[in-house]
Design goal:
Layout: H1 2-22, E1 50-54, E2 65-69, E3 81-83, E4 112-116, E5 145-147, H2 151-156, E6 183-188, E7 211-216, E8 237-243, E9 252-258, E10 280-286, E11 291-296, H3 317-322, E12 326-331, E13 345-355
Antiparallel strand pairs: 1-2, 3-13, 4-7, 5-6, 6-13, 7-12, 8-11, 8-13, 9-10, 9-12
Length: 356
């Protein structure tokens, strides 16, 4: 009997040892070489794409996924910014600038436009009178042509409404705001003589052919019956990037000017200007290489805005800056490389702003 109890006791002791051994955790030491190398491939995430963040949680709590959304980058441009043309693909806003004084914002300013030396829609008050070179009921009657098509040519060609100004690709490639688009005008300049003048022109012809494009500083600049002016006298000048393939890209003459018009319609100088078309202007030559121009309103000649001497009406720069409505770019001569039929005008503008 004693032997039996001894055997039972031995079995009990063995079972107890097994239970105790199973209740202990076993820690296994793993060499770093056994783990390999963890790699992560970064994935580009749209600023408006929700990303999932996994957070370590204590035992017993619920493991949840917290979606986080990256903020949309704020619109950031310098004070006095006018346009980088980067929404040029939009048929709704591609021709609207961003000017809003020191607080620029997308598409809150005026429109980009083109203009030329032909306007049959709004005759000069003195047209047809003794001494006038303009036929009765007509205006310049020049035949220079600009694209995007101007409103004046739309009238001449009986087009109900010209298409909106459209941006051109590409733009200034090194712009920090994108180089996809720029503002561009193309076309040609004509100089009419007695032999080449159109039938509607007077015998003297129109000798000062030009085409141009401009950007309005307010959305009312083209409104008939009244427009709002902007006081830009707090700025130092105008800055922009430009290039041109005219003259084979070797250098073509243009001007950047500040039109000084009455409040009846800031966008239609045919109704008359307060400086008799002698606008404050900066004259520059540009090649087919993108070039930055920083032009003060006041400075050492000729690198600043000034009126030409000997014609037009003398006005003060202070009045012009206090009543600004647009900044315009125009062909600056009747040069052979601009003249039809062999010449052509081509000017591209990007990243334009007023600067302090």
């Amino acid at each position: 009997m004693k032997k039996v109890w001894t055997t039972v006791l031995a079995i009990f002791i063995v079972m107890a040892l097994v239970v105790i051994g199973c209740s202990k955790k076993k820690n296994i030491v793993v060499s770093p070489d056994d783990l390999g190398t963890a790699t992560a491939s970064p994935t580009a995430v749209s600023p408006n794409t929700a990303t999932v963040t996994r957070t370590s949680v204590p035992p017993g709590s619920t493991n949840t996924f917290t979606p986080t959304q990256s903020p949309t980058p704020a619109y950031s441009r310098p004070q006095g910014w006018i346009d980088d043309c980067e929404d040029g693909a939009s048929i709704d806003t591609g021709n609207v600038c961003d000017f809003n004084g020191d607080n620029p914002a997308p598409n809150v300013g005026g429109y980009w436009i083109t203009f030329d030396d032909d306007d049959w829609s709004n005759p000069y008050p003195t047209a047809g009178t003794p001494g006038s070179t303009v036929p009765a009921g007509k205006s310049n009657c020049g035949t220079s042509y600009v694209w995007p098509e101007s409103q004046t040519w739309a009238v001449r060609l009986a087009v109900a409404t010209p298409g909106p100004f459209s941006m051109t690709a590409p733009g200034y490639p090194s712009s920090p705001y994108g180089g996809a688009y720029c503002a561009r005008m193309t076309g040609y300049v004509t100089v009419n003589t007695i032999a080449t003048k159109p039938a509607s022109e007077t015998q003297t012809g129109f000798q000062y052919g030009f085409i141009g494009m401009g950007v309005q500083l307010t959305s009312t600049a083209g409104a008939s019956g009244g427009c709002m002016k902007v006081n830009i006298s707090g700025y130092t000048g105008v800055q922009f990037w430009a290039r041109s393939t005219s003259n084979g890209g070797a250098g073509a003459a243009f001007e950047c000017k500040l039109p000084y018009t009455p409040n009846t319609n800031c966008d239609d100088p045919i109704l008359g200007t307060l400086d008799a078309f002698n606008d404050y202007a900066f004259h520059f030559t540009v090649t087919n290489a993108w070039t930055k121009f920083t032009v003060p309103f006041v400075g050492a000649a000729p690198n600043h805005f000034a009126q030409a001497a000997g014609w037009g009406t003398v006005v003060t720069l202070a009045n012009v800056l206090a009543n600004a409505s647009a900044i315009q770019f125009q062909s600056d001569c009747q040069c052979p490389y601009f003249l039809a039929p062999t010449g052509s005008v081509d000017l591209e503008i990007d990243d334009i702003q007023l600067y302090h």
